[in-house]
Specification:
The complex is a heterodimer of chains A (about 270) and B (about 325).
Chain A: H1 2-29, H2 31-51, E1 56-57, E2 63-64, H3 65-95, H4 98-103, H5 109-139, H6 148-168, H7 179-193, H8 205-213, H9 215-227, H10 238-260
Antiparallel strand pairs in A: 1-2
Chain B: E1 11-22, E2 25-36, E3 40-44, H1 51-59, E4 66-71, H2 81-86, E5 87-90, H3 102-111, H4 119-125, H5 141-153, E6 159-163, H6 171-186, E7 190-195, H7 198-204, E8 207-212, E9 215-220, E10 233-238, E11 255-259, E12 262-267, H8 270-283, E13 289-294, H9 298-306
The chains are: A mainly alpha (about 270), B alpha/beta (about 325).
């Protein structure tokens, strides 16, 4: 049986690799999308870091503000390159009929989705490297060898959750023009209570509890935990990992529901 | 309950008693037809007649409510990859990855197929050679439509669906598209075309089925649809004032009338009638103005069949001026 399945799977893996190349090419050619997705988080990093130059966070044992902020921006970068990018581009592809066209080709739907996710992983990987490099060279915030497991697990789960959620939310985006609005309404308010831009110190407990329900805070907090100089051990924050894992399951569920009827459910 | 279906040799499409309901509304009401391999088959009808429902059922985008459908011997509702390998689809409206060039797109879509045509050959076939390195975003409407066709052809399909391929084209672009579509027939492809343009059906199709309100109301070769070839022809000309109908020679006719100086003769023997009238005019030195012989056009038949007062699309007058 596997003798029959293998050549076909091999062919499909080849097709995925092929498709990733073209997804990448298309992504980087569109300046408005490719460049701004990258410029935005890096711009925030530079602005915020220069505003608080040399500050320390007393509530966190006096750690440098940059050690909080670099992982926070990394979380934001991951969300921008996965959730925001995926939701907007999928809504556009759906509205323009590209998804419908792809459905009429011999490329299996799962392979196309895998290629879109694969291309997103390339982008999120580049974003991670850029933010970490800038953090290390400009702000003296270095990845700690001991907490690399925590960093990687949090990054991997965060990427999985937000990529899946980005595809899944397309079901609730009525049309491509509405996509940036819907995405920002979902993301932006949460970032302010989710430990991305500033520590949630002194924030009402209700807001913190609300933020804790969502994956943005889990991703930011998990990364900040791995970067916190006081953290001992592997840098795995069990609570954040758990939240991200739950949202990954939710995201995959929503993603699969969307993919069942990418054009809507009228037929 | 599935009956074993033996594929009829030489048939690209078989449809038996196809029905499609959207809630309470039945958009397709018991349609049956067959399309032979190598044939250009046209589904003609006004908007809302059910054409797109049928073509999207055949393409596998929609499920049917009732009936039997076979496309290249396969059931399109099962979404088999083999069918996608052998069928090319030009949808009514569908975009492409706009940031890629024509050549990249043809390459990219071609790779999905086991059997494919060379990229440059396909680009030449749809006459986009000069635009090969242009991004899809920058193409004109007509060029985009030709790109659609290229992407449908690159997998070297046996059967091509064209859903209203020239809607919104200017006359020049339509002629160009027609010549491309005709070149598909030379490649031996089966073409399934939907359109609401009469002249398109007439120029391209071997066989036409006219749809109205979810049913096929007439089918046949374009020239004989609705008994068009058997209808009387109309001969029009103007007669100088000193002559009257009684002066005309003996001709076979159904009806003849004089309105001012305009004469209308309807006849089932237009060749003989024309020959007698013109011979008489030359012999008697009669100056007949605006002489024309018209067969009822496909549009006349179509309007009659669909009962529509005003047809959509362009009017075609097929004038045989002798």
């Amino acid at each position: 049986m596997s003798a029959v399945a293998t050549p076909s799977l091999k062919r499909d893996l080849g097709l995925i690799a092929w498709q990733v190349r073209y997804e990448q090419r298309a992504y980087w050619r569109n300046r408005g999308r490719g460049i701004f997705t990258f410029v935005f988080p890096l711009m925030f990093l530079v602005i915020f870091a220069s505003l608080d130059k040399g500050a320390h966070i007393s509530s966190r044992g006096g750690i440098p503000y940059d050690a909080f902020f670099v992982p926070g921006i990394l979380a934001y970068g991951v969300i921008a390159t996965t959730f925001v990018n995926m939701a907007i581009s999928t809504a556009i592809l759906r509205d323009q009929g590209v998804l419908k066209r792809m459905q009429g080709t011999p490329l299996p739907r799962w392979a196309y989705v895998a290629a879109r996710i694969g291309s997103t992983l390339v982008i999120v990987g580049m974003m991670t490297v850029l933010v970490l490099a800038l953090g290390a060279f400009a702000y003296n915030v270095h990845v700690r060898a001991s907490t690399i497991p925590g960093l990687l697990i949090t990054l991997a789960l965060g990427t999985a959750a937000f990529t899946a959620l980005g595809i899944g939310i397309t079901r609730f985006i009525p049309n491509a023009e509405a996509a940036p609005v819907v995405v920002n309404v979902v993301i932006l308010p949460l970032t302010f209570i989710s430990s991305i831009w500033f520590p949630p110190d002194g924030m009402p407990k209700t807001l913190i509890d609300i933020a804790k329900l969502f994956p943005i805070r889990a991703l930011a907090d998990g990364l900040q935990y791995a970067f916190d100089p006081r953290t001992v051990g592997a840098g795995i924050n069990a609570q954040d990992v758990e939240t991200l894992a739950i949202w990954t399951v939710v995201g995959v569920f929503l993603m699969l529901r969307f993919l069942r009827h990418p054009q809507g459910e009228v037929r | 309950m599935k009956t074993t279906h033996t594929q009829t040799e030489g048939l690209a499409i078989e449809v038996r008693d196809l029905r499609k309901a959207y809630g309470e509304v039945e958009a397709v009401r018991g349609v049956s037809f067959e399309v032979a391999r190598g044939e250009v088959f046209c589904l003609l009808g006004p908007n809302g007649a059910g054409k797109t429902s049928i073509v999207e059922i055949l393409e596998g985008y929609r499920t049917r409510t009732h009936g039997e459908v076979r496309v290249l011997g396969l059931d399109p509702a099962r979404g088999e990859r083999e069918l996608h390998e052998r069928v090319g689809i030009v949808l009514q409206e569908s975009g492409v990855q706009n940031d890629l060039t024509v050549r990249e797109l043809v390459e990219m879509y071609g790779r999905y197929h086991l059997r494919r045509r060379p990229v440059d050959e396909v680009i030449e076939l749809v006459e986009l050679g000069e635009k090969a390195d242009t991004r899809a975003r920058k193409l004109s409407g007509g060029q985009k439509r030709r790109l659609d066709l290229a992407l449908a052809l690159v997998g070297d399909p046996d059967l091509i669906f064209l859903d209203e391929p020239t809607t919104g084209f200017d006359p020049g672009a339509r002629r160009q598209a027609w010549s491309t579509i005709r070149s598909l027939c030379d490649l031996g492809k089966t073409v399934f075309l939907t359109t609401h343009y009469m002249d398109e059906a007439q120029h391209l199709a071997n066989r036409v089925a006219v749809m109205n309100a979810g049913q096929i109301i007439a089918a046949g070769r374009p020239e004989e649809l609705g008994g068009r070839d058997l209808r009387p022809a109309e001969i029009h000309f103007s007669l100088p004032v000193q002559w009257s109908l009684g002066d005309l020679p003996d001709i076979p006719f159904e009806q003849r009338s004089l309105d001012g100086d305009r004469v209308l003769v309807t006849t089932k023997e237009p060749v003989l009638a024309t020959q007698r009238i013109t011979t008489w005019a030359v012999d008697n030195d009669v100056d007949l103005g605006h002489f024309s012989v018209n067969q009822p056009t496909l549009e006349d038949i179509y309007l009659e069949l669909t009962g529509a007062g005003v047809g959509e699309g362009e009017t075609v007058t097929e004038e045989v001026v002798r």
